[in-house]
Amino acid sequence: DIGFLVDGSASIEKRGKGNFGRMLNLIKSTLNAFSLRQRRTRVSVVLYSNRPFKVFGFNRYSSKLRVIRAINYMRYPRGGTKLRRALYYVKRYLFTRRQRGRKQVLVVLTDGISRRGVKAPAISLHRAGVEVHSIGIGRTFRRRQSQQLRQLASSASLVYKTSLKSVRSLVKRLQRSICLPTRPTKKPTRLCNRPIDLGLLVDGSGSIVLHGKDNFGRLIEFVQSLVSFFRISRRHTRVGMILYSTRSYPIFRLNQYTSKRAIMGKIRNVRYPAGGTRTGQALRYARRYFFSGRKPKGRKRVLILLTDGISQDSVKGPALQLRNAGAEVFTI
């Protein structure tokens, strides 16, 4: 079940004349990869500006020709960007309950910032099992816009940005991503209860995305999956994180957060810095930031380094210093 939530606000055409038509073409191109009928893929479209309007629901059309024709007849409404209201509408009228054996997907196309926050309705959709993809329309995005796109999406890898002038590669990515089976979000059956000081050292260099455009988002998801395995508290596992490229960026200390929820939120909001790969410098920083002073009695010290390339500075000395400080170093 693929639902499209389409921005019809006045700013769409301000960003580029003909953008509303290009958005509709993007939807039609995306649907070319799917077999549209009731027992296969079903499609629904909601248009919104000041208020949401259901163009057609999942059960309305059972042929691609009729779906395309209905999209072609859509008219540009103009108005404000009341996305929060539209998300609640979609949850209530499109995704009323989980469909056994069917993947439920919502693709949100928007060019601006919603007048009210979108986090609460987005979380409601995620919890209902709806996989949300967010597509930002425009050439440049302010920090708040990027943050809102990330809040909308079910994961960082489901955030897309486009000027709509060239959407061929975006369409292919979107088709592939929608068609992938929903990944189970099972919690680990057993949590690690050991007293551990766990330092995470994450590569944010420019080459990360050269190996795959969405790789940094996948890296962050991997870190979150890793953390979910441990029982977080002062008595059990304490987690800290450093992001590095040309220089090191401290995200949070080992004793800064004692709840898994707070740690996950902090990891989720990490921004990609790009730059060089100064792993040696980052290892020295990690030694001071995570493991200064005497090793606490009865606590294991662990550093997990995630990197994609060869360091631009030497790692041998800093790695030896970490081992001398009693840290067990894992490299991925």
From TrEMBL:
Q: Could you tell me which residue ranges the VWFA domain spans?
A: 1-174, 197-332
| InterPro entries, per the entry | ECM_Assembly_Org, VWF_A, vWFA_dom_sf
List the SUPFAM superfamilies.
Answer: vWA-like
Gene3D superfamilies assigned: von Willebrand factor, type A domain
The name on file for this protein is VWFA domain-containing protein
Organism listed in the record: Nematostella vectensis (Starlet sea anemone)
